[in-house]
Design goal:
- The structure holds 3 protein chains of 3 kinds.
- By secondary structure, chain A is mainly α.
- Chain A has a single domain, classed as MetI-like (MetI-like fold, Orthogonal Bundle), CATH 1.10.3720.10.
- Chain A is about 70% helix and about 0% strand.
- The two termini of chain A are about 15 Å apart.
- By secondary structure, chain B is of the alpha/beta class.
- Chain B has 2 domains: about 200 residues, Rossmann fold (3-Layer(aba) Sandwich), CATH 3.40.50; about 70 residues, no CATH class.
- In chain B, a hairpin with a 2-residue loop joins strand 1 and strand 2.
- Chain B is globular and about 65 Å long.
- Chain C is mainly alpha-helical.
- In chain C, helix 5 packs antiparallel against helix 10, helix 7 packs across helix 8 and helix 11 crosses helix 12.
- The longest helix of chain C is centred in the middle third of the chain and has 38 residues.
- Chain C is globular.
- Classes of the chains: A mainly alpha, B alpha/beta, C mainly alpha.
- Chains in contact: A-C, B-C.
- At the A-C interface, helix 3, helix 4, helix 7 and helix 9 of A face helix 1, helix 7, helix 11, helix 12 and helix 13 of C.
Chain lengths: ~280, ~325, ~325
Amino acid sequence: MKMNLRLKIGLVILAIFVLGSFILPFFMEVDPSRQGSYPKNLPPSLEHPLGTNSLGQSIFWFLVIAVRNSLLLGVSVSCVTTLTAGITGLLAGYVGGWLDRVLTALMDTFIAMPAFPILIVLSVLVRGNTSFLMVGVILVFFGWPWSARTVRSMALSIREREFISMARFSGASTLQIVFQEVFPYVYALLVVAFIDAVLWVTTTEAALAVIGLSKVEIPTLGSIIFWALSYNALFIGQYMWVVAPVVATAILFLGIFLTSTGYNQMYATRRGHDV
Amino acid sequence: MIRLNNIVATYTTVRGQVDAVDGVDLTIPGGKIVGVAGESGCGKTTLLKVIYGDLIYPLALRQGSVEYELEGVVHTVDTRNGRQVATSIKDYWFKYISYIPQGSMSSLNPVVRIRHQFVDFLDPEHRTDDVIDGIREYVKSLDLPPEVVDAYPHQLSGGMRQRIMVAMATFFKPDIILADEPTTALDVVVQKGILQLLMEIQAQMKNTIIIVSHDMGVHYQIADKMLIMYAAKAVEFGDSEDVFKAALHPYTKMLIESLPTIGDDRMRRGIAGRPPSLWEDLRGCRFAPRCPLATELCLAQEPELIEHKPGHWVACHYAGKTHQ
Amino acid sequence: MGLLQYLTSRIGSYLVVLFIGLTLTFFLPRLLPSDPIENYIVQLEAQAGQSMSPEEVEAIRKTLQQIYGLEGNLSSQYVGYLEDVVLHLDFGPSLANFPTPVNELILKALPWTVGLMGMSIVISWALGNVVGLLAGFFHDHPVATALEVLGVILYPIPAYIVALVLIMLFAYVWPIFPLSTTIRPGPLTFKKIRVILYMSFLPALANTLTRLGWNILSMKAVSFSNKEEAYVTYARLKGTRPLKIMTGYVARNSILPQITRLSLSLGAIFSGTVLIEILFSYPGLGLLMRTAAGTCDYNLLYGTITITIVAVATAALAIDLLYPLFDPRIRLR
């Protein structure tokens, strides 16, 4: 599989983050979210690679756990989202008729609504009873329409092609056709949709956390920033507490995006278009 | 008159370089309708591009030159030390020499009115209302209502759009008109209309029209002279009457025999096999593998294009023979 | 499809979105386990000790139910809700700022959000499209590649990161701009306008940068593929000047899907604006929402959400209705 430059860079970045956040924790000495493990507000040193914060936590280890949690949430929610998008898109595009109309109306409505404000309201309403799961469920609700639309238009165009008519005439059932003939084309789309979903979910959860409306006790890329801002890290000159997650987030998201568009480019050239 | 001096035109692709026109050398007389025929990939479209001077990457003129007279001035499209010297020809595009590309359906800008597309390549001072009125008058002679000039392309039918393309290419009364498959994808009635139109225009303006088509029927209706191409080479060239009645090259004969005629119920024969791949190292006559007259000589030595009869050129060792 | 068909289908979707949005907002709080009224009463009782009689509690409950619109059964509540919102745009009083009506608060905040969002959209869309067009048209040129890389780097960076970076750089490291927006009430003088512009600069910059990457990349992709279209080749063959080809042929056609995408992404743009407002303490709807979230001011929350849904859907509709002006294939048959 000949990979283009974007895909290579993206995968390298992702590899660093994924491996780092899942393997490094085995070397942790203390639970990073426990407060007061270390002296407060120490500058970066060999012992504390990114220093410590006002809560006496090691910024580096906290960041590692945060990345891990963000990725876990992102990937798990995206699995559900992509699955939903794939199924609804395929059904809507291939089956057509009233089912298509209903699903498309649903998709368009959810796309038209500004997700973040609604998430703000939802997060307030479920506060106290929130588990991380709740946050995830809410995110699924708004995440699926975008990819579903793309899958649907792909399914629509495939439906018209000859080999589908052939399959139909040979007596295969709708479900069979959908999964055996249409699916391979849609597969690449779904991979890209999955990666995009991971990006969106991680971003949105972090955004909610930054303004304090997610379950901020759990370390994520967003909640780090939330605590840093709550403790006026910038004001008291503790830049690293904010800079570290900001830089990490930027690089991680860049890596996810590069992987997504790199894969898309590679698959597009395989299909014969130039991108 | 158009003089083709040993033209070799090359495409650069990921697989390497391929000569789509490989040594075509002949003189096309002016004031006639010239038909260029041959299978897909024989190089006819490339030849047209070279004559027009549309030599942008990946197409390049590796060897040779094209000379023609426009408004009394001789222009040369050639290579000098490997660089193209075709830039001046662009100033003459559509004013003295024009081009009707394949696929008229999508060659018009969908969001701009037709009248703008007639003149947007001119300098602003030439885009006057007088000119637009002139266009409205002109399209009438092509059987188009003058309102089409103010319409958008999607509002016109395929046949109308093709007529607009012809109108655009002829409005400024160019000396040379190059048409690439002007009738493909049109229904037969519309086809006839377009061909008739081209003949009328040529009769009026007395210019040179070169028509490329894989459809021998088109050439039969309209061409004064015929050029047959095969695998990047010119294999026969002459008056179309001579070519159709008494073709000298076996390939031409087979092309003509594939045409149906009224009253003749015999089975049509296609030509077995396919043209050779231009990627391979080709020796001898390129048609030899498919030719019923082929001998050892044909496989070893490539025949040159020679004037077998006055005004009738052919590249074949056994020109005129019908069997061995 | 014909113009009439296009318009009716767009207006139809608009009404569907409004209906679903309003209904969703209505049902949201009612589907949840916690009852805000009971919570409030519990709070009251805790504060007042044991000194409240059952009748007093009941009276309070009734008043609260009235205020919250929770009297009667579900369907009468729904009708009442629709009446209030659609006909009178009445969301009731704000609970944290009792008795100020929610409308008042929203009306004060709305111009700020509209201004911030509008300005950012205009700049990022226009600038992004120009950069994208150049990047796509001059595809092989190194500068074009650099512009595309710019888009690639900007695009995945979320709004809050952009906001934080700008805050760090320009409010702390080089303290040119203030940390948060403080605008004193008073008449609109020139001085005040300058102050407003000064305060709005960083939030506007953040919002613009957030969207710029996407505009660049999508315009580049469309321009690049349009460049290969038959009508562009034909324009070249006619001897049309490259500048004219880029503007009259490629740009004129590439802008069409960009308009559609703009209309679809208004929801996302609004979300970003909300986040930026909160981080900069900019006095718009976003900050209002956050404050309402913090004080559990349900009326204010639902009011802002409803206005948001209506505003975004209406703006999208406006763009959709303008689209035929640009695409003659929809405008004329």
